[in-house]
Design brief:
Elements lengths: L6 H20 L9 H9 L1 H13 L15 H23 L4 H25 L5 H15 L7 H24 L2 H8 L11 H46 L5
Helix pairs in contact: 1-2, 1-3, 2-5, 3-5, 4-5, 4-8, 4-9, 5-8, 6-7, 7-8
Length: about 250
Amino acid sequence: MDKKFHYKGLLIFYLVAIFFRFLAVKTTVYSSIDNEYLLILLRGIGPAVGAFIAIKFVQIPVSFSLKGNYRSLFLPLTVFWAFPVILIGAVSYIQHGSFPFLLLFTVLLYGLLEEIGWRGFLQEQLKHLPKLQSVILITVLWFVWHLNFELTTSNLIFFAVLFFGTWGIGKVYSSTHSLLAVAGFHSLNNFFRNGLHGTELVLIAILLACWIGFMLWYKQKYRQEQEVREINMNLQKAGSEKMVPGNN
C-alpha cells in the first residue's frame, strides 16, 4: 500500500492548497489588488501550487496534459473552452449588451487551476482506492478546502453538488485525461455568478449535451480507428510471415 500512495506528497499538496485558499478568503493579504480577475485566480491557485510542490519535493511521477487523449490541443481547446465562451458571451450580449469574454476565460483558468490539483494530482494518487471511497474522500477534501463550515441548507446542497461533481468530472478525466476538458465541466456553475435561472440552466444543458455528445463521438471514432489500425497491422504481419523463406 505504501508503494501506491505518496502520503507525504498528499499532505504537502493539501496543506499548500489550504494555505493559499486561506490567504485569499480569510485574510486581507490581497486587499490591495484591484484587478477582480486576478483575485478570482488567486482564490483557486492553491490546488495547482500544492500539486507542483508535492511533485517536486516528493518526486511523484505525475504528468499533466492539456489535450489528454485527443490528437491535438485544438480539439479540447475549441470544444471545452472557445465554444462556451462564444455561446455564453453571445447570449450575454443579446440580453445585456456586453461580451464578458475576459471573465469567462478567467473562470475557465480558475477551473483549470483547481483541476490540476483535484483531478490531475489527487484523483491520480487515489485511483487505487475503491471508486466510491475515492469520490467521497475527494469530495470531503474539496469541501473543506472552501473553508465554509456553516451548518446551513445551502452548504449541504453544496456538499451534494461537490459529490456529484467529483463523480462526474472524475469520469470525464478518466475518459479524456484532458485538463482542458475537466476545467470546462468544472466551470459550468462558476460561469453564472448571479445564480442559476431559466436561461442559465438552458445554457448548461446545451453545453453538457454538446460536450457529452462530442466525447462519445470521439471515443467511438477513436475505437474504430484503433480497430482498423490493428487489422492493418495483422495483415502486414501475416504478409511478412508469408515472405519469410521456409514458411511455405
